[in-house]
Amino acid sequence: MARVRELAPRDEIERRYDQISRFEKSLADDGTTVIKCFLHISFQEQRRRLVKRLDRPDKHWKFSPSDIDDRALWPAFQEAYTIALERCSTSYAPWYVIPSDHKWYRNWAVGRLLLEHLRELDPRYPKPDFDVAQCRRRLLAQ
């Protein structure tokens, strides 16, 4: 916990979480569906992906030497993520934790989640506020 507290004072972190929750609540109150996915990979998978970035010249652009230093902070990051997920997951804007070591599964899970929400929303094209048949006749008469 020490490293997380070094990143920002606890009261500042709480203020930010409250601000995020208020913003998401306002979106939901306005009829917006908020879907938040946390794409979680394991420590081992992160290492494998970083090594791959170093081994393949076409992936060098995705690598930063600071990635190695940041791995030393893994426990602090995991703790920070846990707190953020707990504080900012609400009934109107829930977090969905998606296991992402396997990209095919990550893609399937996110796609399935979005499909379920779209089916619930049952989106429809807006109805025209004009007489379609009359406009068609007028257009064809020109």
TrEMBL record:
SUPFAM superfamilies assigned: P-loop containing nucleoside triphosphate hydrolases (SSF52540)
Pfam families, A to Z: PPK2
Protein name: Polyphosphate kinase-2-related domain-containing protein
Record-annotated Polyphosphate kinase-2-related domain positions: 2-121
Transmembrane stretches, start-end: none
Lineage top rank: taxon: Bacteria
InterPro entries for the chain: P-loop_NTPase, PPK2-related
